[in-house]
């Protein structure tokens, strides 16, 4: 415990950094994933904008990038991060790379959840003369909102997990804190403190997600 | 001039497997539906009824042939024109297909929002329609809180929102019990008599045709094998095959001694 107390300010700072990295990655990656997922859903056969070549390209793109272990992706995409954000290290670089990696993962979750919407509902909207983009924005997303919220909750937890390797490219957060001040300095209590904070964050996120999904699903 | 007129219409689907045969859901079909008719289309499942009805509002595109709705050629319409066409053609479905994310009022309002109706008019129109279908007290409820019959009545209100001239009913009562079926059919009758809406009813149930329709076409294998006034078609069936589908009506039509319709139906099936 004595090891931990002087480090508490650093722990809070690390917690804040984790929330910052995860929050921004959720916004950028979440938006990118939503667009990509809508692309996958709407271009498949018998969908709103059925387009085999486009679907094929998107599908392969997601399949190529999604399974790369994040720590390797982080290293491999560093030149791209540097090109886009101006820096290959630190929190900014990791937010970029994390958003990119998350977008591919989120796209599958979005696609799966949109597929739960009954095709008949889409047909009903077409039958009243709604345009395809109107259907996508005013019907498809609201109809799948409950499962989508749960999907995004799942992703936030995954982002907390992935953000823990930020230290490899000079980023901060709880992962860096736990390794740097706990593991490397033989202070397991410090490591456990970081674990505890992560558990609390994940619990809060999950409770919030469940609550919002319940509201959307009305059950 | 008929309100809906189909000439030599074919709808084919590519084979589902490599080397399979092309499926003709509708083949060389001719059909005229006059304004004010309640036109029943009956047939076995797979006869092409659902495809046929979707050709009228172009949810499916015809492979060949001509489809005139109110004098306009549907098969040549672009996306924007099709959207305008569909505002004038309501549709109801077997599984109701209500929007679960919207309230009853929200469901009925949706077509009006699509039609860019002013907000104040939407509220009035929604109230009027829910009153017509007898669900004024359910406006704020969500679809899952309704019974099947109530859901279909919401479906009808939604389909009528933009005051269409045509209503397409695709097996609208097939998921309902007999009593609820009767209620919905009565409501559809009122839609026809009070608003003068031309209704095209797709069904496999004889009772529906008998209660509701004024004219009927019998479909089999993507073609219309017989059409005319309801009584004529079912009292003197020309083909043995569809006389089998008349069989359930024997419970409804009193059999007459020298009528061949039920006898041949039963023999035909055995």
From TrEMBL, chain A:
InterPro entries: AA_ABC_Transporter_Permease, MetI-like, MetI-like_sf
Transmembrane segments: 20-42, 54-77, 83-106, 144-169, 189-213
SUPFAM superfamilies cross-referenced by the UniProt entry: MetI-like
GO molecular function terms listed in the Swiss-Prot or TrEMBL record: ATP binding
Record carries keyword Transcription: no
Domain ABC transmembrane type-1: 15-209
KW Nucleotide-binding (keyword) present: yes
Compartments (UniProt record): Cell membrane
Membrane topology: Multi-pass membrane protein
Main location: membrane
Keywords per UniProt: ATP-binding, Cell membrane, Membrane, Nucleotide-binding, Transmembrane, Transmembrane helix, Transport
Family: Belongs to the binding-protein-dependent transport system permease family.
Name recorded for this polypeptide: Methionine ABC transporter ATP-binding protein
Species this chain originates from: Agreia bicolorata
């Amino acid at each position: 415990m004595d090891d931990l107390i002087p480090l508490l300010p650093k722990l809070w700072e690390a917690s804040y950094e984790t929330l910052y990295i995860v929050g921004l990655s959720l916004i950028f990656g979440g938006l990118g994933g939503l667009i990509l997922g809508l692309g996958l859903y709407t271009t498949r056969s018998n969908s709103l904008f059925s387009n085999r070549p486009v679907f094929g390209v998107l599908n392969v793109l997601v399949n190529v990038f999604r399974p790369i272990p994040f720590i390797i992706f982080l290293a491999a995409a560093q030149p791209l991060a540097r090109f886009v954000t101006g820096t290959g290290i630190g929190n900014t670089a990791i937010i970029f790379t994390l958003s990119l990696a998350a977008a591919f993962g989120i796209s599958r979750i979005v696609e799966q959840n949109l597929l739960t919407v009954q095709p008949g509902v889409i047909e009903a909207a077409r039958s009243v003369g709604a345009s395809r983009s109107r259907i996508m924005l005013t019907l498809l997303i609201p109809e799948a909102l409950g499962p989508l919220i749960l999907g995004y909750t799942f992703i936030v937890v995954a982002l907390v997990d992935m953000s823990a390797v930020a230290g490899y490219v000079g980023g901060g957060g709880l992962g860096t804190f736990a390794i740097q001040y706990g593991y490397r300095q033989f202070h397991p209590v410090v490591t456990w403190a970081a674990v505890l904070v992560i558990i609390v964050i994940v619990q809060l996120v999950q409770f919030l997600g469940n609550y919002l999904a319940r509201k959307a699903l009305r059950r | 001039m008929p309100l809906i007129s189909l000439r030599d219409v074919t709808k084919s689907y590519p084979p589902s497997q490599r080397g399979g045969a092309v499926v003709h859901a509708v083949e060389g079909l001719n059909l005229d539906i006059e304004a004010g008719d309640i036109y029943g289309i009956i047939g076995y499942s797979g006869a092409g009824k659902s495809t046929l009805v979707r050709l009228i509002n172009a949810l499916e595109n015809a492979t060949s042939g001509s489809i005139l709705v109110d004098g306009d050629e549907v098969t040549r319409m672009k996306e924007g024109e099709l959207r305008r066409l569909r505002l004038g053609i309501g549709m109801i479905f077997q599984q109701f297909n209500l929007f679960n994310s919207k309230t009853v009022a929200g469901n009925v309002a949706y077509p009006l929002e699509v039609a860019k109706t002013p907000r104040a008019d939407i509220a009035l129109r929604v109230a009027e329609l829910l009153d017509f279908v007898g669900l004024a007290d359910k406006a704020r409820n969500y679809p899952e809180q309704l019974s099947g019959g109530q859901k279909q009545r919401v479906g009808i209100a939604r389909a009528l929102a933009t005051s269409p001239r045509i209503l397409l009913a695709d097996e609208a009562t097939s998921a309902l019990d007999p009593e609820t079926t009767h209620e919905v059919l009565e409501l559809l009758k009122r839609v026809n008599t009070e608003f003068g809406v031309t209704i095209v009813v797709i069904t496999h149930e004889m009772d529906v045709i008998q209660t509701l329709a004024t004219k009927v076409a019998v479909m089999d294998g993507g073609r219309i094998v017989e059409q005319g006034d309801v009584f004529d078609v079912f009292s003197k069936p020309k083909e043995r095959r569809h006389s089998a589908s008349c069989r359930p009506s024997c419970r409804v039509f009193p059999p007459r001694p020298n009528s061949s319709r039920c006898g041949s139906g039963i023999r035909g099936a055995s």
